[in-house]
Design brief:
Number of helices: 8
Number of strands: 26
Helix content: 10-25%
Shape: globular
Strand order of the largest sheet: 8-5-4-12-23-22
């Protein structure tokens, strides 16, 4: 129960009638005001982890949460979309929600684009990241607008004879696999500047992905850059590329431009954090998820693990001592894990030094893109 900044810890909550007479200091503790900027997986999990120990305010300009790792499936299967999108008001334990954009923060408050200041005791930066192509990952808009964007994109894909995908990382590979499987018969071309697909993982991940895509008829061009011309067409090394529809899947960047004057950023725009996930120089400010400079692959489940560490450290600072703070271990302290979906029926998984396809990655991720598990973890049905 959060009333006037008080946390009632007794088994029986006090009946408040304007005073707290009769309550002793042993069962009343000051409950910290925590502001979380960003409603992606890092922000949502932070809010929920602090729901019983803090008065939480979530600042997020969108009116909905999106399970982004299911977006590519949603583009080719419209019936999948409703499970990806949920109004924040329908997600339990988020605290107070302010539908606005944060533009700056100082040592005690966050400034909104309206000029309103939101005070905090502790601040969590979780603004996430974005792609150059907003249909893959959007940063604004209403729930209805996003549903319409999915519907429009599906129709655009259906009408296209040729699809060009720029980027050979997991997003580009998964998009190519989804289109080839669910909208077969189209000329799909994937262009990558690297010499193999999924180049930041073990070579076998890229090799298995390459073999699957080629089997599905996808044309793969490696060691090349797609050049865009003024008329909107593309070419590689002077040769034109068929492209009724084009997707840019490279160039993901953290949404930290608004922090340029208030937080320490590295050369790629990531917020510099200590092992405790505290922002360098700001002991009461934390940064979690895609926005920080933790050396690990930016994945949703790792953002959730970071959120839990940050929440535990905020609780320790508020009710105990800084000596009890936990360090976050990159990749959650476990092996390097990557699952690349190659449509509903196939996938490839890296687990530390091991790389394999078959039953395990297909059932872990590919059938449902983790959507059912994610909804359950957030307290949602279905």
């Amino acid at each position: 129960c959060c009333v006037a900044g008080l946390w009632l810890t007794s088994n029986r909550r006090a009946h408040l009638t304007g005073s707290l007479s009769g309550q002793t200091s042993s069962n009343i503790m000051v409950r910290p005001q925590v502001v979380v900027i960003g409603g992606g997986p890092a922000g949502i999990n932070t809010c929920q982890a602090l729901s019983k120990t803090a008065c939480v305010t979530l600042i997020e300009p969108k009116g909905f949460h999106e399970i982004n790792w299911g977006a590519l499936r949603g583009m080719v299967k419209p019936e999948f979309v409703n499970r990806l999108l949920t109004a924040y008001s329908d997600i339990p334990d988020l605290g107070r929600i302010i539908a606005a954009r944060a533009v700056a923060y100082d040592s005690s408050s966050v400034t909104l684009e309206t000029g309103v200041k939101v005070p905090y005791d502790y601040l969590v930066l979780a603004p996430g990241s974005t792609y150059p192509d907003p249909v893959i990952k959007t940063a604004a808009g209403s729930l209805q607008d996003r549903k319409q964007a999915y519907a429009d994109e599906h129709e655009r894909l259906k009408a296209a004879n040729s699809v060009l995908i720029i980027g050979g990382g997991p997003t580009g590979v998964e998009l190519a696999a989804e289109v080839a499987e669910e909208l077969s018969g189209k000329q799909v071309t994937l262009v990558s500047s690297g010499d193999r697909l999924v180049a930041d993982k073990r070579p076998k991940v890229g090799a298995k992905s390459l073999a699957h895509l080629q089997k599905k008829g996808v044309k793969i061009i490696l060691n090349a850059k797609a050049e865009r011309h003024p008329d909107g067409s593309y070419s590689v090394k002077g040769k034109p590329l068929a492209a009724d529809v084009t997707y840019q899947t490279v160039g993901a960047r953290p949404n930290t431009a608004f922090l340029a004057t208030s937080a320490p950023l590295d050369g790629k725009g990531h917020v510099k954090v200590l092992p405790t996930l505290q922002v360098e120089g700001f002991p009461k400010v934390f940064a979690v998820g895609d926005c920080n400079n933790v050396a690990e692959t930016k994945l949703g489940y790792l953002a959730a693990l970071q959120a839990k560490v940050a929440a535990a450290n905020i609780t320790a600072l508020a009710f105990s001592t800084a000596s009890q703070l936990k360090d976050y271990k990159p990749a959650g302290g476990g092996p390097d894990v990557m699952l690349v979906s190659l449509s509903r029926k196939n996938g490839v998984m890296q687990l530390g030094p091991l790389v394999f396809g078959g039953f395990i990655p297909t059932n872990l991720k590919c059938k449902d893109m983790f959507v059912g598990k994610t909804r359950k973890d957030l307290g949602l049905v279905g």
